[in-house]
Amino acid sequence: MATALVEQLTQSLRQQIGDGDLDLALEQLSNWLSAGAPALYDEATLLLSRYSCLGREERRGALMREEVRVEQSRIVAATLDLIKVAARRASAESSPVAAPPMSSEVQLPPDVNFETIIGVNNLKQIAWIDQGLRAARSVCRILTPKGLGTGFLIAPDLIMTNRVSRISNRYTELA
Q1: Is residue 45 part of a domain?
Q2: What is the mean pLDDT of the chain?
Q3: Among 21, 108, 141, 169, which is disulfide-ready with 16 (CB 3.0 to 4.6 Å)?
Q4: Using alpha carbons only, what angle is made at residue 102 by residues 99 and 104, rounded to the nearest 5 degrees?
Q5: pLDDT at 116 over 80
Q6: Percentage of the chain with pLDDT > 90?
Q7: What is the 3-class SS of 14-54, one letter each residue?
Q8: 3 or 50: whose pLDDT is higher?
Q9: Looking at the structure, do residues 23 and 69 belong to the same domain, yes or no?
Q10: Which of 27, 22, 24, 29 is nearest to 6 (CA)?
Q11: Mapped to the 3 state alphabet, what secondary structure does 114-126 carry?
Q12: Is residue 107 part of a domain?
């Protein structure tokens, strides 16, 4: 990921935390890390889980307001540390590497061709890739307090899910 994009994402996450949207920041951080940093993704998922449990305990009255504030501050600090680590790791991965040698520097045997297909041609036409990209736009991830699932849009305001991804009316009214 380009350094400017990483910086923009980290600023956005910090802004969300500052605005009190810790749950949204943790979800976006989890989405970012799910692509290429499994260990960090696990840590973000655990922080999101801790924050959800904290809210549930507060609603049940099991924790006093001061206890909630202290634990929330710990989760915020851990989230900010995780953002720093993720940004450093993303910047290190995008740092410049040595360029491969130019093709004029490489001596190939005269019988080697760059465009030879060996065996069956399984290359796909660009229209096939475009069709896949259009179909992928309708796929979604569904996050609920009970877990997550998948679905896809069948109309601009209608999502079809698997039975295991069923969402109660209480959660759909909140969306």
Answers
A1: yes
A2: 79
A3: 21
A4: 170
A5: no
A6: 6
A7: HHHHHCCCHHHHHHHHHHHHHCCCHHHHHHHHHHHHHHHHH
A8: 50
A9: yes
A10: 29
A11: CCCCCCCCCCCCH
A12: no
3 state DSSP class of 155: strand
Identify whether residues 9 and 74 lie together within a single domain: yes
Cβ distance 47 to 76 under 8 Å? Answer: no
Torsion angles phi and psi, residue 149, rounded to 5: -155, -170
Instruction: Report if residue 99 sits inside a domain.
Output: no
Spatial distance between the Cα atoms of 100 and 144, rounded to a whole number of angstroms: 47
Same-domain status, 70 and 20: yes
* Reported pTM: 0.52
Q: Are 118 and 129 in contact (CB under 8 A)?
A: no
Domain ranges, residue 159: 126-174
What is the rounded radius of gyration, in angstroms, for the C-alpha atoms of the chain?
Answer: 23
Q: Hey, what are 114's tokens?
A: 């760059």
Q: List strand residue ranges (DSSP E) for 19-172, in order.
A: 139-144, 147-155, 158-161
| Domains contained in the chain, number | 2
